[in-house]
Design goal:
Helices cover 4% and strands 36% of the residues. Strands 2, 4, 5, 6, 7, 9, 14, 15, 16 and 18 form a 10-stranded mixed β-sheet that branches. The protein is globular. The relative contact order is 0.26.
């Protein structure tokens, strides 16, 4: 799609390197996920600062949330962990239930990358996911976050098809579908990426679909990263303004639209790797933190369809906005 320019009012405050084809084949056969499939050179959008509007209550009803209000470990009823050196030649070792790397403090989730020798890796971090706890088909998924800075950081807020895997009824990557709600690499410190990856559209083929947003202050200020996902399209939003739309082509082909099935959510902070480390890793970045104020999932009341397969109970009362 052609480049789009949005005004400051419309958006608000608050070179990907290919993975070798052999890795892609391995992931497709085993069900392992490739990293948030790099958003090569999608359309540019300019963003800036004014308070985002909350979701329209006439349309959106809260279905699931984590407000990160209880200090300590992340809620085990909502989150699990990836463990180890998982993907994409990244440098970090993802740890499990280790407060140095993942904790709730001051009403925020903190995912922290630390420079330390650990299980053969040179640094540690965390990757939290809702797999097996909650997943959704359609709805509004949003997170309010403040990103780390420094050459080599690679945080992401993203989703993968819950059917990822091998065997009957399973699909490897990218056939399971991937939605990158927010992706950021430290060597382009004012650029946010939103991307989809499918069997037909992915970075292995150089056909991924997405856009990138110029944002002045992703590390100093809070911003709301969101998608609004329906049967017909996925809108990617920054602070309530849509900057990219991926449309269902109506062909009923899972290679182009695998998004009629549940996806689970992932929050992670990677270091280095094929894209994040393309310009090297500056050790001065450590410790690096991605802070998340909340994650909220909404049902679209206008369609009459709830986000499918939500496994965790919805809160009884919608939370008040945080400052």
């Amino acid at each position: 799609m052609p480049p789009t320019t949005l005004t400051r009012k419309q958006l608000s405050r608050a070179g990907r390197r290919s993975i070798p084809l052999a890795m892609a084949a391995l992931c497709a056969s085993t069900g392992l996920a490739l990293p948030r499939a790099c958003a090569a050179d999608p359309a540019d959008v300019t963003a800036s600062a004014a308070a985002p509007k909350p979701p329209d209550p006439a349309r959106w009803e809260l279905a699931w949330a984590d407000e990160f209000d209880k200090p300590g470990a992340p809620d085990a009823a909502k989150w699990t962990y990836e463990v180890g050196k998982v993907r994409n030649q990244e440098e970090q070792y993802y740890t499990k239930e280790r407060s140095e790397n993942a904790r709730v403090e001051d009403g925020q989730l903190v995912i922290e990358a630390r420079k330390e020798a650990f299980e053969g890796a040179t640094c540690t971090s965390a990757s939290l996911l809702t797999r097996g706890k909650a997943d959704w088909t359609y709805g509004r998924i949003e997170a309010r976050a403040k990103l780390p800075s420094g050459r080599g950081v690679w945080p992401a807020i993203w989703m993968l098809g819950s059917n990822i895997g091998s065997g009957d009824g399973k699909a490897g990557w990218p056939l399971c579908g991937e939605i990158d709600i927010m992706e950021f690499v430290g060597f382009t410190p004012q650029t946010i990426h939103g991307t989809v990856h499918t069997g037909a559209y992915n970075h292995i083929k150089g056909t991924q679909k997405g856009a990138k947003v110029h944002l002045e202050d992703p590390h100093q200020s809070w911003h709301v990263y969101a998608i609004e996902w329906s049967e017909t399209k996925i809108d990617f939003q920054l602070d309530g303004a849509t900057y990219f739309t991926f449309e269902n082509d109506g062909k009923h082909d899972e290679a182009t639209w695998p998004y009629a099935k549940p996806q689970y959510l992932i929050l992670n902070l990677a270091i280095g790797g094929a894209w994040g480390g393309a310009k090297g890793v500056d050790d001065a970045l450590f410790p690096a933190q991605m802070r998340v104020d909340y994650v909220r999932v909404y049902r679209d009341k206008t369609t009459g369809a709830a986000p499918a397969e939500a496994k965790a109970a919805a809160p009884a009362i919608a939370p008040a906005p945080k400052p």
